């Protein structure tokens, strides 16, 4: 007759091993989140702040908030939208506090957000210049229209996801996006005809 003997100190040790394993798994999941979403969050932050260092700080702050609330991570349905909303709120708070919108004409800053694989130096310079011109026109849009356009065109979020990030209805997103696209078409046409 073989009876298993379990002493109380053995239960504590086994429990501690399971806790360590769970903690390690949570840390790995958080590291994977950082690796997967950091570039997207940087683009969102940069599109609003227009400053590389500020955008990096905003992304870092977002991940620090995630770290503080990592126990709620399992409850999040769409981590991408959740993270974008965190960054969005951070950058808007920073803009409200600063009451200014720092702008940059530094092409090297724009190069960080514009992929240029497979382009010659001349094509890349032309693409950077065009990218800067489009961003300048986006900046001329009213705030509400600019927000939805940035999230739709640059971050490729759906109307449902944008509504979740901004805390508005999906129909409001669609109407703002319609107005933003029409305004952008007019602004770009004026830019082309001015050349």
SSE layout and pairing:
Elements: H1 8-49, H2 52-68, H3 79-98, H4 107-111, H5 121-139, H6 143-154, H7 159-166, H8 170-194
Polypeptide structure, described:
The chain has 195 residues and is mostly helical. It has a domain at 11-102: RNA polymerase sigma factor, region 2, helix turn helix motif (Rna Polymerase Sigma Factor, Chain: A), CATH 1.10.1740. The chain contains eight helices and no strands. The protein has helices at 8-49, 52-68, 79-98, 107-111, 121-139, 143-154, 159-166, 170-194. Helix 6 (143-154) packs across helix 8 (170-194). The model is unreliable at 100-108 (pLDDT under 50).
Helix content: over 70%
For the record, give the distance between the C-alpha atoms at the N and C termini, rounded to a whole number: 94 Å
Structural class: mainly alpha
Tell me, what is the CATH class of the domain at 11-102? Mainly Alpha
Secondary-structure element sequence? HHHHHHHH
Work out the number of β strands: 0
How much beta, percentage-wise? Answer: under 5%
